[in-house]
Amino acid sequence: MKLADNKATLSFSNGSPSIELPVYQGTVGPDVVDIRKLYGQTGMFTYDPGFLSTASCQSAITYIDGDKGELQYRGYPIEQLATNCDFLETCHLLLYGNLPDAAAKAQFSKRVTQHTMVNEQMQFFMRGFRRDAHPMAILTGLVGALSAFYHDSTDINNPEHRDVAAIRLIAKMPTLVAMAYRYSLGLPYMYPRNSLSYAGNFMHMMFASPCEDYVVNPVIERALDRIFVLHADHEQNASTSTVRLCGSSGTNPFAAIAAGVACLWGPAHGGANEACLNMLDEIQRTGGVAKVGQFMEQVKDKNSTVKLMGFGHRVYKNYDPRAKLMQETCKEVLAALGLENDPLFKLAMALEKIALEDDYFVQRKLYPNVDFYSGIVQRAIGVPVNMFTGVFALARTVGWIAQLNEMIGDPEYKIGRPRQLFTGAARRDVLPIAKR
Ligand code: SDX
Known about the structure:
This protein is mostly helical. It contains 18 helices and six strands. The strands form two sheets. The protein has a three-stranded antiparallel sheet. The chain has a three-stranded antiparallel sheet with strand order 4-5-6. It is globular. The termini are far apart. 40% of the residues are buried.
């Protein structure tokens, strides 16, 4: 970052001395007012719960222009990456800052392929879970448990350890997600197949049977790979900020990523794709498109907690570019599977049309986000609703680890330790119980 030819002056009406704060600018996007010395100079904190106006770090990985609805990974527009690159190329880009040439891609893919198996002991963790445990509960446990096995890549301050841990996490997440799915059905785990692509291998581990050969459907393989690309990273969202804060204590990368998995599970974040599909199912079950008007009234009713899941975003005040690409992928997959008349897809399109023309949504700049269509395409592929967020976690792992490694690689990084505005009881003395 570099100093802008601008300064911020903070003055106080109570006569306290005003202070000057430097302003920094990045490559693109909003400048920042550097408040690091504010407390030392004024004895005051800033106040920004939810971090609506706070840059927590500087980063060179992902840029979002929420007003224009633009998303770039290392400067490349998501539309170009989603159509010209695959997920492993995108992983290389996010981790190392550039798209690989053919040789580098082959080498990177080989490294990932060689780490797709998990320690055989991992399956014994599974046995402790109920068969109907939510897959995200299982994943939160399994990802954290990886640090029990890979002691040779847990020193987060060692660049080699960080790189090996990144490869291991990218490689093993599909295996763990598939294990959680197979366990829920009482099916045997399918070992990874090194001859398959990253997405093809995931499909094989999820849907193959040990009793017969499995043929990867190339349309679904490409669609899944694109879903992974679209979910790979997204600036300082809640789960990425969780990973950064967790990793800032120097804990091992597996533990920090497990914290990200736990945060992503929430319905306001990565859990929205599951919540959105359940919402569409409920509307479809109780009247379908004819029911949409009544449902929208509930959403707009201030006294109801009903939200249009898959809509709205803290940063995007325009159409989420990933939602557009996801809608296209939806159409491709449904057509390839002969499901053009999928009622939930039609319902989602009807909901979107009504919302985009409704003042409530227009005034609040609420548009479809990445989660609005992702559930429909995953369901069509055969991924059950409760696995949607696990697929999101699988794809976001590379973004989490890239952001974590960027932070740890920054010599200026410190442990994250926000302060507060205390509104509790002033100091008081304990009375003996007889006098309370
Ligand atoms: C992801 O941050 C990221 O980058 C996340 C993500 C990523 O890739 O990491 O993009 C992935 O999490 C996408 C978002 C998925 N979540 C959902 O689809 C859940 C539904 N959306 C909302 O919960 C909400 O829009 C949030 C949580 C996404 C954003 O919330 P904000 O920024 O805190 O906005 P807000 O709640 O203050 O909403 C502003 C207004 C409010 O109305 P008023 O109080 O002004 O009258 O808009 C309303 C909200 O009630 N509103 C909605 C709504 N979202 C916001 N009303 C109905 N339906 C919605 N979905």
